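Quick question: what would this complex look like in 3D?
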Amino acid sequence: MKKEITRRDFLKKSAGVAATLCLPAWAACTQDNVEAFLREHFLELSPQQLTKVLRRLEKENLKRFGKAGTIDATPAMKGVVFGYGLDISRCIGCRRCVHACVKENNQSRKPAIQWINVIEFNKESGIDFGEADPYYCSPGSIHNKAAGEKGSGSSTQELSKEQKAILQNPESQYPLYQINAEKPKTEAAGGCKVPRADHFYVPVACQQCKDPPCVKVCPVKATWMEPDGIVVIDYDWCIGCRYCMAACPYGARRFNWSEPELAAEEFNPDTHYLGNRPRRRGVVEKCTFCIQRTRKGLYPACVEICPVGARKFGNLLDPESEIRYIMKHKRVLILKNELATHPKFFYFYG
Amino acid sequence: MHFMSFVKTSFKLWFSGGRYYWAWIVFLGLLIVSGAFAYRDQLADGLIVTNMRDPISWGFYIGNFTFLVGVAAAAVILVIPAYIYHWEPIKEVVLLGELLAISAIVMCFLFVTVDLGRPDRVLHLIPLIGSPNFPSSLLAWDVLVLNLYFILNFFIVSYLLYNAFLGREYNKAVLLPLVLLSIPAAVSIHTVTAFLYNGLPARPFWNASILAPRFLASAFCSGPAILLILFQILRKTNGLKIKDAALSKIAELMAYAMFINLFLFGAEIFKEYYSNTEHLVYTKVLFVSVLGKTSVHYFMWPALICSFLAFLLFLIPKTRRNIYTMNAGCLMIFFGVYTEKGLGLVIPGLTPDTLGEIYMYAPSLTEYRVAAGVFAVGFLIFTLMVKAAISISLGETVMLGDQSRDSRI
C-alpha cells in the first residue's frame, strides 16, 4: 500500500512540475492521458481502478473505430492450466489458422502482424531450423531456390533480387502472401498448392512456456504468467525495449514497429484486456491462446478454423481432457527441449 | 555564492575559444539538430523508420550502447595504472577519465532511450515509482548500476572541480574511497551489460561465458584509446603536463589487453569452427557472406586486422613510443573494438533468428542520424566539461588568488 501512495504522489507532483514547466504540452494532456500515465501496475489495480481503466480504453476504441466494443478482464478459471496440441502429421500448411488468428485478435493489417508462423521443412532433414522456410510458396522462399545449389543450408546460396527485397523488408512479402481463407492458396495468387510434396509444416506461435525466458528478462514486469498458464502482456505497461524478443527461443513475439492499422469494419469488438484489445505503436504482442475466448470456455480461433483437425486444446489438469489423452497415447515432442523452457505447446504425430 | 560564480566562470570559459573550438562546437551542433529531427520522425512514425524488424529486433542503437558502456568502464579503470605507476598528473588523468565516463554514460542512456518503443513509459524502470523486475531482469540491473555509476562519477568530478575552483584542498578522506569505489563499479557496469546478452540461451552466439571477460578486455583497449588521443590534444591546447612515458605506458597496457581480447575471441572462434555444430552459422554471419553481400563481415575482417595490427604496434616498444604509430594504433583499436562490440556483436547474435530466418540488417539513414546526434551530444558535454575542468584544475581559473596547490590525490 505504501508503495502505491509513494508512486502516485511522486508522479502527481512531478506531473505538476512538468505542467508548469511546459504549459503547451500540458494543454495537450487530456484527463484520460494523465490517468493512463499515473496508472498502477495491472496486478496492483483494485477492482474499481480496473473498471475505470477498462472503461477509459473502451472510450478510446470508440474514438478509434467508431464502436467501443467490450474490454473485459475475465480472470483465470480455478483448476485450469491450458495446454495445446498440434498434429504435425495432419497439418497441411494452408495458413488458415494464421488468418483466423489475425481476424480474431485484431492484429495490425499494415504492417501485417501475424502471431502464428507456419514453417515448411523438408521431410529429408526433419525439424532443422537451419532449413526452415517461413516464406514457402512466396517469392520470399529461401529454399525454393531456382538455381545456385552449392552446398547445403542457406549459408552459401545467392539470392535473387526479389528475395533480397523481401529480406530487406519482411513486411513487403505480405501482399504476395495473402491467402483467401475460403480456398487454398493457388499458383495464380502468387502461392502454390499445399502441402507440397516431400515437405511438412510446423506452425509456431507462443509456446506458453512454464519457465518463460521472456518473463524473466522483462525489465518492467509488463509480461507475466497468469494462473491458467497463459503468458500475457500488458500493452499499456510495456516500454518497448524488445529484450523479451531477444530472449524468446521461438520467435513468438511481435513488435508494433509503427502505428498498427486496423480498419473499423475489421475490428473485433469482443476483447480481453490481456488479449486481443487493439494495440498501439511501440509495444510487443503475441499469442495468448485466445484468452478472451478460452477463459469463457471457447476454443482458440486457430483450433476452430483448422480444416484438418490438427489443432487440439484443453485443460492440462483434467485427466479426461483431449490434450491429456494425446500426451498419454501419442508420440509427443516439444521445440528446443534443451533450453528447458517447458512449453505447454505439444507437437505430436497422430 | 561561490557556487554561482563557479557556474558563471564555467559559462565564461565555454564561450571563449579559438576558431577550431567554435568550428567543433558548430559541427556538433549541426549533428545534434540533424539527430533531433531524425528522432522526431521516429517518434512520429514509430521504429519502422529504422531497419530493425521482428527477426532482428535490436540493432545499431543497442550496439552503440554496448560499446559505450565499455568506454565508460575503461576510462575509470585507467585510474589503477595511474596509481601503480605514479603518473605525474594523476589528478588530471582521474579527472579526464571520469569526465569521459560521464559523457559515455549519458550517451548510453540516450541510446537506450532512442531504442525504446515507448519512451514515455521510461519511469516504469525506476525503483519505487515503477516496477523494475528485480532481481531477475538484467536490464533492470543495468539501469540501476549505470545510474549509480553516473551519480558516483558526477559527484567525484564536481567535488574535485569545485574545490579546485575555490583554491581549496579537497578532502582526501572523502575522495579516495569514492575513487576506489568507482573502480569495481566500472567493472560491474560492463559485467552486467555482458550478462544482459550472456543470459539468453535462445541466442547461442551470446550465450558464451567468455562474453563478459571479452567485454572487459576490449573495453580496456577502446577506453584508453580515446583518452590517449585526448591527452595529446589537451597537452597542446591546454598545457596539460603529461609525459610521453605515461602515454607509452598506457599503450603498453593496451597491448596486453588487446592480446587477451584477441586470445579470448580466438578461443571462441576455435570452439565454433572445430565443433562445427548448427551454432556455427552465427559466426559465419560474422566472417563470411551468408546471404547476399550486405553483411557485417565486410567490416569484421578489416576490424580484426586493425585490432591485430594495433596489438603489434603497441607491443613493439619502438612503435608505441613513436607518436604517429601510437596514434595510428589508437584509431585502429577504436575501429576494431567499435565494430566487434557494436554491430559485430548484435547482428550475428540475432541473425539468423531463432527459427532460422535470415534478415540481413543494416542501419537506416534515420538510425545513422539519430546515432550521430547522440554521439554529438556526448562529445559536446565532454568538450564543455573538459574545457571548464582543465582550466580550473590546472589553476588557470581560480576564484581566490593563486595559491599553488598540490595536484596529487
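Answer marked as accepted. Chain B has one domain: 10-393.
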